[in-house]
Design goal:
The chain is mainly α and 84 residues long. The protein has 4 helices and no strands.
Length: 84
Amino acid sequence: MLYLCSSKTAHRIVGYLEEEAVYSYTEYLEGIDSGLYENVPAPKIAIDYWRLPADAKLRDVVLAVRADEAGHRDTNHEFADLLG
C-alpha cells in the first residue's frame, strides 16, 4: 500500500531495512570470525545460487548475502532519490 501512496517513501524505508540487514550480516561475520559460530560447509543450494566454490563455507555465504543486501539497499535509495 505504501508504494501506491508514496513510492519515494516506500523505497527509502526498504533501503533502511536493507541497511539494517547489512549491519546484521556484518555482526554475524564477526561471530564467525571470533569462533562464536562454527564456519560450517555451505549448503549446496547456497553454493549454486551465489555461484560459490564447491568448498565454500558459511562465511562465504554470509559475505554473498551481505553483498546482495547492500546492492538492494543502494538500489532502493537510488530509486527514492530519483523520485525526489
